[in-house]
Specification:
The protein is α+β, with helices and mostly antiparallel strands. 28% of the residues lie in helices and 24% in strands. A hairpin with a 4-residue loop joins strand 4 (42-44) and strand 5 (49-51). The chain is globular.
Length: 391
């Protein structure tokens, strides 16, 4: 389960995604440089090989560490993509093709704009199909995909069902979750796609219903529409939302910040957990402003900056496992959760301001101070204030 949002306002496109997967499945934040003139003929994706291309974009990816593809990412041309599992009756039940996560990474590596990335995903979908085991431990977990694709000029929603697809150009804002949402005529569609939408005849009912997919999407849309002024901080508040309780207590599949369920029944009904969260601002002529938690449970995790040059704590192999251990400590201590959330809010005021100003050096210095002072942990007796270095 996942949730992805995008909106155009204040001269920018704003994008966010929570990646919900098995709770113990680590994601690696990776940065790959642009490639020119690659002579390799074939590319090994997660399950199949396809033809390689000689020239590729620089990319920043969030990748579950067992697969080639990515849950979400941004490229050097300012394109951002996130995908969602959707549950169609045409899903490939045997064999393997391209995973939706492979298509995310391929669109980012090969696309110089949102429109071009969407065209690349569509071409690869029609050529190779989609499918295969998509779970870390649950190898029976298979699904088709929807995609939210954006650059500084446009926002696109692409829904797929087998090798069929429907594409909508969005004028203001969009949210996608784990159910089909494009109803009626769209901007473009494959020849075999139903005009009324895939949800009318091609969607299974069980997983979208029990996963509360349409309720989560409605929550995300309402939050976007209520925004007075978008910002990275405002996006973070949306992606940390719980329907009631704080996720650790009273959590449900209606939560955007998803916590997996406790006990045998809870784990069956709520098997997924938010294992990384991404926030992006895209503006014409300006490098993307990018932050991720790099680990699970954004409601108790700090958003950390990353750019296409310079250092980033997100590239450390220790970020995800240390965050997972932090989650376990927070789960046992409600008072500590409250204190850590207050500290995160204070620190992110400075971090987000620096990222939005293009001062990644300042933002990274703030992260270094956070890590050095152990501000993610508390014994209830100490309080450390973190101040922004002078620009």
């Amino acid at each position: 389960m996942c949730d992805t949002i995008a909106l155009r306002r204040s001269g920018a496109v704003w994008f966010a995604k929570n990646s919900d997967r098995e709770p113990g499945e680590s994601q690696r934040v990776e940065r790959h440089p642009a490639v020119l003139g690659d002579t390799r003929e074939k590319l090994a994706c997660t399950h199949i090989e396809i033809d390689q291309v000689p020239d590729r974009q620089a990319v920043i990816l969030s990748r579950p560490d067992w697969m080639w593809g990515a849950e979400m990412g941004v490229n050097g041309a300012g394109v951002v993509i996130g995908n969602e599992a959707v549950f169609s009756r045409r899903v490939m039940t045997r064999g393997a093709a391209l995973l939706g996560m492979d298509l995310v990474r391929l669109g980012l590596e090969r696309g110089g704009s949102a429109h071009e990335a969407a065209a690349i995903i569509i071409h690869l979908l029609e050529t190779h199909g989609q499918g295969g085991p998509a779970g870390w431990r649950d190898k029976g977990f298979r699904y088709d995909n929807s995609f939210l694709i954006a650059d500084a000029a446009e926002i696109l929603v692409l829904e797929t069902c087998g090798r069929e697809w429907r594409l909508e150009r969005v004028t203001s804002h969009a949210a996608i979750s784990n159910a089909y949402a494009l109803a009626g005529p769209v901007t473009m569609a494959s020849e075999g796609a139903p005009i009324e939408g895939f949800m009318t005849t091609d969607e299974t009912w069980l997983k979208p219903k029990f996963g509360r997919a349409r309720e989560r999407r409605a929550c995300a849309l309402a939050a976007i529409e209520a925004l007075d002024a978008p910002s990275l901080a405002a996006l973070a508040r949306i992606m940390r939302r719980h329907d009631h309780g704080d996720g650790f207590e009273g959590g449900s599949n209606r939560d955007l910040c998803l916590h997996h369920g406790g006990g045998m029944l809870g784990k069956f009904l709520r098997p997924s957990h938010t294992t990384n969260s991404l926030l992006v601002r895209l503006m014409p002529g300006v490098a993307p402003a990018i932050t991720m938690t790099g680990t699970k449970t954004p409601c108790v995790s700090l958003y950390r900056p990353i750019a296409f040059e310079g250092s980033s704590s997100l590239l450390s192999a220790e970020v995800w496992p240390s965050g997972a251990a932090h989650h376990d400590r927070m789960a046992a201590d409600p008072d500590a959760r409250a204190q850590v959330r207050a500290r995160i809010a204070a620190a992110e005021t400075h971090i987000f301001s620096a990222v939005e100003a293009g001062r990644h050096d300042v933002a990274e210095a703030l992260i270094e101070a956070w890590d050095d002072h152990g501000l993610a942990e508390t014994n209830g007796k100490t309080s450390v204030e973190i101040n922004a270095p002078s620009a």
